Amino acid sequence: MKDLYSVLGVNATADAEAIKSAYRKLARENHPDANPGDTAAEERFKEISHAYDVLGDAEKRSAYDAERASPFARAGAGGGPRTGGGGPFGNIDVDLGDLFGSVFSRGGGAGPRPARGADIETEVTISFDQAMEGVTVPIALDKRDACSTCRGSGAKPGTSSSLCPECRGRGVRGREAGGFSVNRPCANCGGAGTIIETPCEDCGGAGSTSGRKRYNVKIPAGAKSGTKVRLRGKGQAGPAGTEPGDLFVVVAVGESERYTRAGDNLVIEVPITFAEAAMGAKVEIPTLDGKVAITVPPGSTDGRRLAVRGKGAPRMSGSGAGDLIATLRIVVPEKLGKRQKDALQKFADLDKRDPREALFT
Questions:
Q1: Which of 8, 241, 317, 323 is deepest in the core (most CB within 10 A)?
Q2: Within its chain, how far is the Cα of 318 from the centroid?
Q3: Is the predicted pLDDT of residue 234 greater than 90, yes or no?
Q4: pLDDT for 99-123, tens place per residue?
Q5: Using CA atoms, how far apart are residues 2 and 105, in angstroms rounded to an integer?
Q6: 89 pairs with which residues across the strands?
Q7: Residue (of 261, 266, 257) closest to 225 by Cα position
Q8: Are the C-beta atoms of residues 294 and 309 closer than 8 Å to each other?
Q9: What pairs with residue 180 in β-bridges?
């Protein structure tokens, strides 16, 4: 397995900027225009471009690192141990990296799947009130976009890519091994199926450039923490000539001092007096769009829940709202005046029930 980090002269912990800087330096030194007639420099330029195509893309780099760390990639020279003789496929001499990283098929095999750019995620934090009302928030992030000079083709303006003569545009090359055709990416074009003979000077043939991008993201009313808003085509640029990935904005919603959330329902604790709980009362409570009166039934106990229909959080589908759940909390005064004590004592003298009787039956 080729060490792409060594190709660019960086270590495996190098960040994106270090990789880009190394690529640009090597691409200038080995560019065919700077080395006319030098076939070695031309091959070196292709190798450098392929390495950057992989390591300059976050998703491809992650997949490459995982393959590079596998025991099959580490073992032996040339990317993995080789096996032959009486293996399960008969007398086969084949790189195990081919077996685990390629497509098996009887006959010619299928070509590569159409590529696209990687999806990316970013997070925004909004207040509870903003989540209830809906809000548009600005975001900024670093990512790769199609090169504005070559419009993502990777070729210098006025030129175009040509069909790879080695794989004839398939992007893969097959090799017979014990009756199987083992497909692997074409080494000549790096799996692209095309060759860029005159790369764009601004992107070095990659078809994309890195930069700071800014977007306005519309968060729908009723958003919860974890809600994902999808911006199609705003992810990483795809390989030359392919569509970009998507950008997913993950929403984090701050807490409310008044409400807690249960799905599309909002829960609020409503303090009431002992007298209101015992005799019943009408009390006002706040909602997202003003006050509303609720009826406390006589004999209500602490923790009783009363629902106010349609006064909860807006549903993101736009189909109404959840409910507002009022949880009653009986407030017991910490201190009583003499008249309050006398009144309660009269009540206690009249109330002959024993609330603990059930404990002994």
A1: 8
A2: 25
A3: yes
A4: 344 433 333 444 444 568 899 999 9
A5: 25
A6: none
A7: 261
A8: no
A9: 177
Q: Using alpha carbons, list the distances in angstroms from residue 113 to 16, 103, 170, 242, 341.
A: 26, 11, 10, 12, 83
In 3-state terms the chain splits into helix, strand, coil percentages (rounded to 5) of: 25, 30, 45
Structure tokens at 62: 């992650």
Under DSSP, the state recorded for 321 is B
- Edge to edge, the sheet with strand 103-105 lists 103-105, 180-185, 172-177
Q: Look at residues 246, 235, 238, 236 and name the one whose alpha carbon lies nearest to residue 116.
A: 238
| Alpha carbons within 13 A on the beta-carbon side of 349 | 6
- Closest residue by Cα to residue 196 from 10, 11, 4, 31: 31
Closest CA to 95 of 187, 167, 166: 187
**Quick one: which of 254, 229, 234 has its CA closest to 245?**
234
Please report, for the chain, how many H helices and E strands are present, in that order: 9, 18
140 burial (CB, 10 Å; 0-12 / 13-18 / 19+) is exposed
Rounded Cα distance, 88 and 84, in Å: 10
pLDDT of residue 162: 84
Residue 360 is given by DSSP the state G
Residue 242 to residue 194: CA distance in whole angstroms? 13
Place of tokens 């990659």: 206
Which helix or strand (DSSP H or E) is residue 276 part of?
Answer: helix 274-279
User: What are the tokens at 77?
Assistant: 């020279």
Q: Write down the pLDDT at residue 238.
A: 84
Residue 250 three-state SS: strand
CATH numbers and ranges of domains, the chain = 1-81 (1.10.287.110), 260-360 (2.60.260.20)
- CB contact at 8 A, 130 and 255: no
Q: How many CB atoms lie within 10 A of CB 147?
A: 22
- pLDDT tens profile 180-190: 556 777 887 77
Bridge partners, residue 209, by sequence: 145
Contacts of 17 (CB under 8 A, 6+ apart): none
